[in-house]
Every structure is written in structure tokens, then in C-alpha cells.
Amino acid sequence: MSEIELRDVVQRFHARGTPSGFLTAVQSTSFTLRSDPPHIVSLVGQSGSGKSTIARIILGLQRPSSGLVTYGGRDIFKLSRAEYDDYRKNVQPVFQDPYAIFNPFYRVDRVLRTAIKKFSLASTAAEASSLMEESLLAVKLDPGQVLGRYPHQLSGGQRQRIMLARVHMLRPSFIIADEPVSMLDAQVRKLFLDILTDFRTTYGMTTLFITHDLSTVYYIGGEVMVITRGRIVEKGPVSTVMHTPSHPYTQLLLASVPQPDPDARWTDRIDIAQATAAEAGP
Ligand code: ADP
Questions:
Q1: Which atom of ligand 1 is found nearest the CA of 47?
Q2: How far apart are CA 193 and CA 188, in angstroms?
Q3: Does residue 237 lie within any of the structural domains?
Q4: Does this complex have an ipTM over 0.90?
Q5: Ligand 1 test: best mutation among 6, 12, 16, 23, most atoms within 8 Å of CB?
Q6: Does the C-beta of 13 come closer than 6 Å to ligand 1?
Q7: Range of the domain at 7
Q8: Residue nearest to atom 7 of ligand 1 (CA)
Q9: Residue 48 counted as domain residue
Q10: Which of 36, 62, 68, 103 supports an S-S bond with 7, CB 3.0-4.6 Å?
Q11: Are the CB atoms for 157 and 31 separated by under 8 Å?
């Protein structure tokens, strides 16, 4: 079993025009992500509340001003290069639109082969091809349709699922998903959330799901942490927090958006073939 633990993490940034000259983006934050049992925990809050900063800190991309982030009891900022690479193989990010991280001159085939090579996931070209096909099918993409395309020839939803195919190949214990569905239309959004749920049940992956959108929190279920002004003010099972919120901010957040009705809006599993056809693109 592995654990990512944040203990009293604080992140300050220089901010001109503020009385102190600093802005505290993350205030004394502590929580643990466990891989056993695998679970999905949403981090929900309005824009500017500190969610992405927490994601960057967990990924080791931002060193906090104070506090500790440990993985298996070790400070992630004190890992050797090889240990950090191993950590990052096991803790995979999925961002809002991965367009920026794709090389525009690489077809999907090359994007996936690069990951296979980097992480030694296959020993022969044939093994690499079948791994890519298996992973693309797992995220409901047609290998024949997408492997030969460049990033700009894919829809946003397809690009997101190429990232998920990469995750599928790597089988990390943790996924850090930062607003992954906010640019997707409702149908593709549901497909994406169903795949994340499938990754938990089939492969035991734990996801930190960052969003400002309460309806996705209802749909994905599991646990939720509510954040405002860099502070987590409430956490617990989605059913408890969303139905009987104890913190005034959670009550305000819930009152400020139309209440999603999970039975009416979300229970139908979407027709995968229909979704794939709808976003097939050029
Ligand atoms: P969220 O993801 O919830 O929208 P962020 O974590 O991106 O929030 O930002 C939290 C706060 O920290 C915001 O006020 C943002 O402007 C500020 N911030 C984030 N990154 C930096 C940075 N590199 N330098 C200065 N301020 C930053």
C-alpha cells in the first residue's frame, strides 16, 4: 500500500499590492491519499482557492513554503532523481487540456511509443503496438482512427483520452486530475468520469479529482474536500457533505448553484459508440 501525505502544507507567493507583499495560496493543509482501498476524492472550490497549487505541490512541481509532502513516509522533495522518476511514474497528472504538453509534430502513435520506451513498458515493437491498442480501446478510442493523427487533428475529448490511455499503460497508483473535464461537453464529460471510475474498480487507481463544478462531484461520488481561500474547510463522503454540509462555506457553495439531481441527470450510462461518433472530428 502506498500513501501520499500532506502535512501542514503552506504556499505563499509574492504579491505586489498586498499589505504583507505575500499571498497565501494554500494555508496549513493536511490530508492523505491512500491507494488501498483505491478511492476517488474530489477537491472542490471556486477559482483561485488553491486547488492547482496543491496539485503542483503533490506532483513535485512546486516546493511549498513550509510543511511536508511524503510518499511512503519519504519527503518527495528529498528523493533522488531516480526515486522521483519512480514516484512520477506512480503519480500521473491529467490536466485540463493536454494540448500544450503534446509535441505538435508527434502523431499519437509516437506520443504513446515515447512513453512506452521511457518507462520500458514493452520489449518488442509488436508488444508496444498491442499495448497501445489495448490502452486506446480501454479509453473508448479507435486505434485505427487516432494513432495516425497529430494533436491538432483530435478533439479536446480525444486528447484527454490519449492522456488517459497513457495512464492506462503506466498503471499508476495515483492520478492527479486538475479540472480535466471543464472544457468538455456533457456527453464526453460523462464518458471521461466513467473511465476514471473504471480505472479505480478495475486497476485500483486512486484519483484526486480537482474541480469547481459540483455536478461532477455528485456524479463521480466517493469523497470530497471543500476548499476556500487555500483552506480545506470540510471533508467526508460526497453523500454526507453535499446533503448535510456543516461548514457555512459549503452551504453557500451548494446554495449558489442549482442542485444537481443525481437520479435525473446522471444515472444513464452514455452510449459510448454515440459519443465516439459525435467527436470523431475531421
Ligand atoms: P485554483 O486552482 O483554485 O483556481 P490556484 O492554485 O491556481 O487556484 O491559485 C491560488 C492563488 O494563488 C490565486 O490567487 C493565484 O493567483 C495565486 N497563484 C498561483 N500560482 C501563483 C504564482 N506562481 N505566483 C503568484 N501567485 C500565484
A1: 4
A2: 9
A3: yes
A4: yes
A5: 23
A6: yes
A7: 3-97+176-278
A8: 52
A9: yes
A10: 68
A11: no
